[in-house]
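To: structure subgroup
Subject: Chain for Friday's discussion

All,

I'm putting the inputs and outputs inline so they're searchable in the archive.
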Amino acid sequence: MVAVINVNECVGCGTCVDECPSEAISLNGDNIAVVDANECLDCGACVDVCPTSAISME
């Protein structure tokens, strides 16, 4: 499983970036979170902190 960002719900707050223990999430030029699937640990920490529920594990 890997974190997946719903780009229509992401507000670019960066909370997931700060919370990710493997630094697998970054914000792109449009301030939308992007996940590096190769670095994602499938821990779900980002899901728990996202204020708009824009992240799911798939």
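Points worth raising on Friday:
The two ends are 5 Å apart (CA to CA).
The chain has a mean pLDDT of 98.

D.
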